[in-house]
Amino acid sequence: MTLPLVPELQKIQNIPLLPNIRELDRRQLGLLMKSLGEPGYRARQLHRWLYSNQLPDFETMSTFGSKLRRKLSESWSIRPATMVGAISEPADRTLPDSTPTAKFLIQLADGELVESVLIPSDDRVTACISTQVGCPLQCTFCATGAMGFRRNLFASEIADQVYLLDKEAQNRYTCKVTNIVFMGMGEPLLNLENVFESIATLTEKDYRFSISEKKITISTVGLVPEMEQISDSRLKTRLAVSLHSADQHIRERLMPVAAKYPLDMLSGAIASYNSKTGQPVTLVCMLLSAINDSVEDAQKLVRFAKRVLCKINLIDYNPIVNLGVKTGCSDSKTMFIQRLLDAGMHVTVRKSQGATINAACGQLATFSGNNGSPLQ
């Protein structure tokens, strides 16, 4: 097993690092315990110590004998992700019970950074979680894509974001995280194995943090082969597809990967998901001025949506410095929505939350160049 990258502090101090055991998944933990001559159930115990109890060292793992604890501590370290920055939206003084959205800067064990967001509402607190450091897809409206791609997150790093945000939710809102959306930095389906592994950990029924699969949403730009894997996975999670336009040429302009997975192929993958899971897909459309917000665009969206079982979620574009894209005007948005309603579509118009702190859709990035992130 390879050593993880070395954080800057260790480079400066020339301190050798042991491999981070939190980079191992369940199968690898089983192989590790087998290599140490331990029975299989030890791997399950170790997983519980690491993720349910979230212990910082091996010496406090009381179900292990001293010999096993020593073997582990001599060869492995435990280095979870940590929170290194936070910023909240200003409270809305016109609302007495206003609960502002908050964004957090999370540092990974190798020094890389991701951003995560807590979104409170009347009946829930949603954790928006990142799955990659940066993103390789380079959607034209997205700050994350503009920062480039560094690496995929380990399953533990995905889960760590939830654990950290759950503690923050209880401190800030006196409420635990009730929902999780994989809609932060990165394309979750390009890191699907670790997404699946993290979901298995986060939904363990007898762990200290446990959430229902039905309270988790996975978002994608529409990677068809990986959507089929989700359809076949038997997960009860929800699926959201960033459609943004039902015109192939416009969609390719907004999301270059759409050229690889055209609309006909995408609708087939959604229909397959509908058939295998019995669940609708949420089609997410961000309205952009003079690009995808005309009545004709709405009509094309209606035709696409009628081919599958879906809900439509309309969101405003959140301006990003230097990307030169503008949100749709109120008149065009009104006409767009009315056309969908007249066609009998199930439409939700989502209020943008977190835009003032660069925490809304498309604004997450761990650098100051394109989105002015205040967290560094």
Q: Which key features would you list for this structure?
A:
376 residues; alpha/beta; DNA polymerase, domain 1; TIM Barrel; ten-stranded mixed sheet; two-stranded antiparallel sheet; 12 helices; 12 strands
Architecture of the largest domain in CATH? Alpha-Beta Barrel
Care to count the β-strands?
12
Radius of gyration from the CA trace?
Answer: 22 Å
How much of the polypeptide forms β-strand, as a percent range?
15-25%
Please, what is the average pLDDT? 88
Describe the global form.
Answer: elongated
List the strand order in the largest sheet. Answer: 1-2-3-4-7-8-9-10-11-12
Helix amount, in percent? 25-40%
The main β sheet shows up as:
10 strands, mixed
The termini sit apart by: 32 Å
CATH fold label of the largest domain: TIM Barrel
CATH superfamily of the largest domain: Aldolase class I
Q: Give the domain tally.
A: 2
Q: Helix count, per DSSP?
A: 12
The top-level CATH class of the largest domain is Alpha Beta
Helix-strand makeup class: alpha/beta
Q: What are the secondary-structure elements, in order, as H or E? A: HHHHEEEEEHEHEHEHEHHEHEHE
Low-confidence stretches: 1-6, 8-12, 354-360, 367-374
